[in-house]
TrEMBL record, chain A:
<feature type="transmembrane region" description="Helical">
    <location>
        <begin position="120"/>
        <end position="140"/>
    </location>
</feature>
<keyword id="KW-0813">Transport</keyword>
<dbReference type="InterPro" id="IPR037294">
    <property type="entry name" value="ABC_BtuC-like"/>
</dbReference>
<comment type="similarity">
    <text>Belongs to the binding-protein-dependent transport system permease family. FecCD subfamily.</text>
</comment>
<protein>
    <submittedName>
        <fullName>ABC transporter permease</fullName>
    </submittedName>
</protein>
<dbReference type="GO" id="GO:0005886">
    <property type="term" value="C:plasma membrane"/>
</dbReference>
<feature type="transmembrane region" description="Helical">
    <location>
        <begin position="219"/>
        <end position="245"/>
    </location>
</feature>
<feature type="transmembrane region" description="Helical">
    <location>
        <begin position="178"/>
        <end position="199"/>
    </location>
</feature>
<feature type="transmembrane region" description="Helical">
    <location>
        <begin position="88"/>
        <end position="108"/>
    </location>
</feature>
Automatic annotation (TrEMBL), chain B:
<dbReference type="InterPro" id="IPR003439">
    <property type="entry name" value="ABC_transporter-like_ATP-bd"/>
</dbReference>
<dbReference type="Pfam" id="PF00005">
    <property type="entry name" value="ABC_tran"/>
</dbReference>
<keyword id="KW-0067">ATP-binding</keyword>
<keyword id="KW-0547">Nucleotide-binding</keyword>
<dbReference type="InterPro" id="IPR017871">
    <property type="entry name" value="ABC_transporter-like_CS"/>
</dbReference>
<keyword id="KW-0813">Transport</keyword>
<keyword id="KW-1278">Translocase</keyword>
<dbReference type="GO" id="GO:0016887">
    <property type="term" value="F:ATP hydrolysis activity"/>
</dbReference>
<dbReference type="InterPro" id="IPR003593">
    <property type="entry name" value="AAA+_ATPase"/>
</dbReference>
Length: 366, 251
């Protein structure tokens, strides 16, 4: 056991606990997984960039690849209006929301030490929808044009903390308790949305179905600008917790023994995940399964370490949502499928497959 | 190094510890033994700072435990719980490296500490395996390696040998003794009285939340006292290999 001079040198102050190096993996053998891990983020970035350009070119009016690329870099062309007023804001919103949902899902799973935690499963999405729908129907406008976003954010936050507080016992969140608590909170939130639906007039009903099915059809630059600060704050700040989230996999007690300030970390991560999800739901309604499935996919390729998992989940989430939106708006032209319906339709069976595969292959998630 | 002074702990109206005093000095290996439910793990939780005692105080290196932040505490003491589950399929090497949370080592230094810790508990050959796929005994040794990687001068180990085969029991107790010889303070909860006799500098015997004996193994581990504490006739033999404890069985 080499104690060396390390005891003297490991007197780092608590504030620098969160590190960004690759050191934790240094001792791991150079396996195939390490190769995938290093290649994953660049590969996802290239795929996302390609998909962005492709998606902007595809639609009711086809725009050639060269014109999309040229327009992005300041060129002009015959389709500038379509690109800049319809396609680009929609692509930007898809990327922001997909990345937000992917990171929020990965962060939630990490902080609960539980592979089933997802903004949707634990009620944050439906809590946010209650806030948003309640604002629409009751005409609450204390925060002006930000009222819906603020209410969605607060609704998501409250639902998250209710589930979190109710499902903890002995410092650990049990899978069964968590899911059951989430079901209960989702049921209550669903009932409230139902009640508001009952009270709503025709115009409000349309808005409500928008929330509950999810859609990126409302994408405009102001909407993008509304989501941007929340998404950027979350995407930048969540990875700071990467190392602590790794250690939380040992359970709260052992994490604390290793110096993790578990209460502070949990509070910070849950706030950020609720912020990411709340902003996403405010702009596009409930889009399920992205936050649940994307982190699992990334773990299959790159392992569970959060330093890669968090940014890779952001990129993969953006890719998945961009692709889903492309399908949603092109598969039944001129109609547009609600994207939340599409992600749940594809994500549900896929998650089942993933569950069985993981159970068989690596001894399960827990 | 670590000093509990008349510590009491109750959950609801059930007393788990009553007026327990115990200290572990630097360079000392102390075994805590006693029947199931004696309060051994509760004592360890209080020493670790997991739970605050209802009365009494615990000091670490002269500082009240409650005044220390988690990060500071982690540099002063490491804890091995009875069983650690890991929520995601982290590899063994990654789990051991978690012991370095908050330390500021370069990557080569980390690698050296991690591989040293894995070698000490004989898990180096498992380095690339996912922790959840390991057997109970393998998981226990990996967790011990993680605790060693923390390199804290106070070690609190709760039944580190419970799931281990005889070879690894000896190896793990050897590691604990090496740490005490290197001037660390080591407290180990044990069920195996022979291991306690062979490795401990001092044995603390608990029953019903009270310390009933505290002293050198040869003084404390006596037939009468053990028979009474465990409610079971126990013989103590003094042989060439040191002290041997065995239940008296009807033939």
């Amino acid at each position: 056991m080499p104690k060396t001079a390390a005891r003297a040198s490991h007197s780092a102050p608590a504030a620098t606990d969160v590190r960004t190096g690759e050191a934790a993996h240094a001792a791991a053998p150079r396996s195939g997984r390490a190769v995938f891990r290093n290649a994953l983020i660049p590969a996802l970035a290239v795929l996302l960039a390609t998909l962005c350009v492709a998606s902007a070119g595809i639609g009711a009016v086809a725009v050639p690849f060269e014109e999309v690329a040229g327009s992005l870099f300041g060129g002009t062309g015959p389709h500038d209006a379509v690109l800049w007023q319809i396609r680009f804001p929609r692509v930007a919103l898809s990327v922001l929301i997909g990345a937000s949902l992917g990171v929020a899902g990965a962060a939630m799973q990490g902080v609960f030490g539980n592979p089933l935690a997802e903004p949707g499963v634990i009620g944050v999405s439906s809590g946010a929808a209650v806030g948003a729908v309640g604002t629409i129907v009751l005409g609450f406008s204390a925060f002006g044009e930000w009222s819906v976003t603020v209410a969605a954010f607060l609704g998501g936050l409250i639902a998250t903390f209710v589930v979190y507080l109710l499902s903890r016992s002995n410092g650990r969140t049990e899978v069964v308790t968590l899911v059951l608590t989430g079901i209960a909170v989702n049921a209550v939130a669903g009932a409230v949305v139902g009640l508001l639906t009952f009270l709503a007039d025709d115009a409000q009903l349309r808005s409500i179905s928008f929330w509950s099915l999810g859609s990126l059809g409302g994408a405009t630059w102001p909407v993008v600008a509304g989501v941007l600060p929340f998404a950027v704050a979350g995407l930048v700040l969540v990875p700071l917790f990467a190392r602590a989230l790794d250690v939380l996999a040992l359970g709260e007690r052992s994490a604390r023994h290793l110096g993790v300030d578990t209460e502070r970390i949990r509070l910070g991560v849950i706030l950020l995940a609720a912020l990411l999800t709340g902003a996403a739901v405010a702009a596009a309604g409930i889009i399920g399964f992205v936050g649940l499935v994307v982190p699992h996919l990334v773990r299959l390729v790159a392992g569970p370490g959060h330093r890669v998992l968090l940014p890779a989940s952001a990129l993969a989430g953006a890719i998945v949502l961009l692709a889903a939106d492309l399908v949603a708006r092109t598969v039944a032209v001129p109609a547009e499928l609600p994207i939340g319906v599409l992600t749940a339709l594809l994500g549900g069976p896929f998650f089942l497959w993933l569950l069985r595969r993981t159970r068989a292959g690596q001894g399960g998630w827990a | 190094m670590i000093d509990a002074d008349s510590v009491s702990l109750s959950v609801g109206s059930t007393p788990l510890l009553s007026e327990v005093s115990m200290r572990v000095a630097a360079g000392e290996l102390v075994a805590v033994v006693g029947p199931n439910g004696a309060g051994k793990s509760s004592l360890l939780s209080v020493l670790a700072g997991d739970v605050a005692p209802s009365s009494g105080s615990v000091t670490l290196d002269g500082l009240p435990l409650r005044s220390l932040r988690p990060a500071r505490l982690a540099r002063m003491r490491a804890v091995l719980p009875q069983r650690v589950t890991v929520a995601f399929p982290f590899t063994v090497a990654e789990v051991v490296a978690m012991g370095l949370y908050g330390s500021r080592l370069t990557a080569p230094e980390e690698e050296e500490v991690v591989s040293g810790a894995m070698a000490a508990t004989d898990v180096a050959h498992l380095a690339g395996r996912a922790y959840p796929t390991l057997s109970g005994g393998e998981q226990a040794r990996v967790s011990l390696a993680r605790v060693l990687a923390q390199r804290a001068p106070v070690l609190l180990l709760d039944e580190p040998t419970a799931a281990l085969d005889i070879r690894h029991q000896e190896q793990v107790m050897g590691v604990a003794r090496d740490r005490s010889l290197a001037e660390d303070a080591v407290a180990v909860v044990l069920h195996d009285l022979n291991l306690a006799a062979a490795y401990a500098d001092r044995v603390v015997v608990m029953r019903s939340g009270v310390v009933v004996a505290d002293g050198a193994p040869a003084e404390v581990l006596a037939s009468d006292m053990l028979s009474e504490v465990y409610g079971c006739a126990v013989d103590v033999h003094h042989g060439d290999g040191g002290l041997m404890v065995a239940p008296r069985r009807a033939r």
